[in-house]
Amino acid sequence: MTRIQYASRGIITDEMEKVAIAEGISSEKLASDIANGRSVITKNIKHEIVPLGIGNGLRTKINANIGTSKDRISYDDELRKLAVLIEYGADAVMDLSTGGAIRDLRKSLLERSTIAVGTVPIYEAVVRTVEKSQNIGKMTADDLFNVIEEHALDGVDFITVHCGVTQKVIDKLKSQGRILDIVSRGGAFILEWMILNGKENPLYAQYDRLLEIAKKYDLTLSLGDGLRPGCLDDATDRAQVEELLILGELRDIALKEGVQVIIEGPGHVPINQVELNIKLQKSVCGGAPFYVLGPLVTDLAMGYDHIAAAIGGAIAGAAGADFLCYVTPSEHIRLPDIEDVIEGVVASKIAAHAADIAKGIPGALEKDRKMAAFRKKLDWDGQIAMSFNPEKIKKLRKEFPPSLENVCSMCGEFCAIKTVERALHKK
Questions:
Q1: Measured distance CA(408)–CA(406) in Å, rounded
Q2: Are 325 and 267 a contacting pair, CB within 8 Å?
Q3: Helices (H), 201-320
């Protein structure tokens, strides 16, 4: 049986118990949310990791993307990125590789990863097809589903599948006109294949086949947003909403079949539309866990897109988003390096934590109270330990050391905390 089937029968598995303890909630509540599709546990039965809970009343999780491209193939670099993103607190990692020996790298990542691993199988299916015939249109439905099963067999915990890019959605896209049409790489692949072949999206037309693979491995499906807006002008338009309505229907079918589903969302969204997008998704998709890229609240933040995404991510998380995909400073520019990965993870962690405070997640505000207490005591070791990037704090403190003990070099002898403490306790 799958997790949904166990939960629907009121059976609390060891995985559910572990997640419930980690999240500070009752296992009965978690099981109920899994049974109703409001929460998921992303763990392939073939991957030995600590199970990850995503969804209703749980801590806001973050994902970090890594992977090769045709222009940059270094397995050592990607494995170093994996180690770093785990060290800095990412809850999941997605391998988006399109260059080199993709399956070999995926297996290495799965062997080393202590956190959930996700992939986008159509990337590898397209790469194989193009290498063989130089034409994406030559890919068959069997080619795609064989790669999906291969990823599941290797132990991948969740996969992004762009099932909602249908003929109906493409017609809507053509009729309304967008500035950036489709910016999702997976969505673009599906659209091109459909146009070249004059056929419906196989992930939609053969959705039952996809569900059978997912059930076999208890694989979580992340229903991708192929029509996510790539600029503010395209946000919350008819094409995006049309795809979301289809994803809501597919979510209901998956739930009946005992398959866990996450819904993916935008993208580039004006700050005043972020909450609207979250509430719309939650309504249309029955409260299913929502996985958002950012959202980025401006198109102008090249080199600083991790900041634009953190602003949107905090608002999205507070409004009910459950899973934030990090964005690095090199988004829209190049493949991220190690420092980009660190900055992306830290920015996303800040956004997720801010959201958890707003949501009232158990223990979230208590961490900030501890930090305040350490600052009151001028306890630098405590402050550094509570920070999102301890190594950076140590480095900054050493660069301009204070002349007096326990203060910083900005205020020095005029430290406000020291001044007030002296004045209040002066005899």
A1: 7
A2: no
A3: 202-205, 207-217, 238-256, 274-284, 305-319
Q: How far apart are CA 166 and CA 164, in angstroms?
A: 6
Q: Are 340 and 325 in contact (CB under 8 A)?
A: no
- In the DSSP assignment, the letter for residue 139 is -
* CA 261/CA 258 separation, integer angstroms: 10
Q: Where are the alpha helices (DSSP H) in 325-415?
A: 338-359, 364-376, 380-386, 390-399
d(C-alpha 71, C-alpha 77), whole Å: 13
Residues 6+ apart with CB under 8 A from 300: none
Percentage of residues of the chain with pLDDT beyond 70: 100
Residue with tokens 């999205």: 316
Asked if 53 and 39 touch (Cβ cutoff 8 Å), the reply is yes
Concatenate the DSSP letters of all residues of 40-61 into one string. EEE--TT--S--EEEETTSPPE
* pTM (whole model) above 0.70: yes
pLDDT tens sequence across 270-286: 999 999 999 999 999 99
Distance of alpha carbon 157 from alpha carbon 3, whole angstroms: 13
Q: How confident is the model at residue 293 (pLDDT cuts 50, 70, 90)?
A: very high
Rounded distance, CA 12 to CA 280, Å? Answer: 31
| 349 CB-contact burial (10 Å; exposed 0-12 / middle 13-18 / buried 19+) | buried
Strands 92-95 and 290-293: unpaired
- In terms of pLDDT, which residue wins out, 205 or 408? 205
> For the chain, what's the residue count?
427
